[in-house]
Amino acid sequence: MQAVVSREGYLSKVIRLLKKIDQAISIDPEVFVKSDWPYLWKK
Fold it and tell me: Contact at 8 Å (CB) between 1 and 8?
C-alpha cells in the first residue's frame, strides 16, 4: 500500500463517500435527523 495517495484518488474516495451519505439522507431524512449526526457535528 502506498503511503502517498494521489489527489485524484483521494477526491474520488471522498466524492464516493459523500454520494453514499447523500443517498442515505435522501432515502430517509427523518431517521438521519434523529440519529447522532447532528450531535456529532456540533462538537
Answer: no
User: Using CA atoms in the order 27, 31, 33, 34, what is the torsion angle rounded to 10 degrees?
Assistant: 180
Instruction: State which H helix or E strand residue 1 sits in.
Output: none
The single-letter code of the amino acid at 2 is Q
Task: State yes or no: pLDDT of 23 exceeds 70.
Answer: yes
Predicted TM-score (pTM) above 0.70: no
Compute the CA torsion angle 24, 42, 12, 17 (nearest 10 deg): -20
Query: What's the rounded Cα separation, in Å, for the pair 42 and 30?
Result: 18
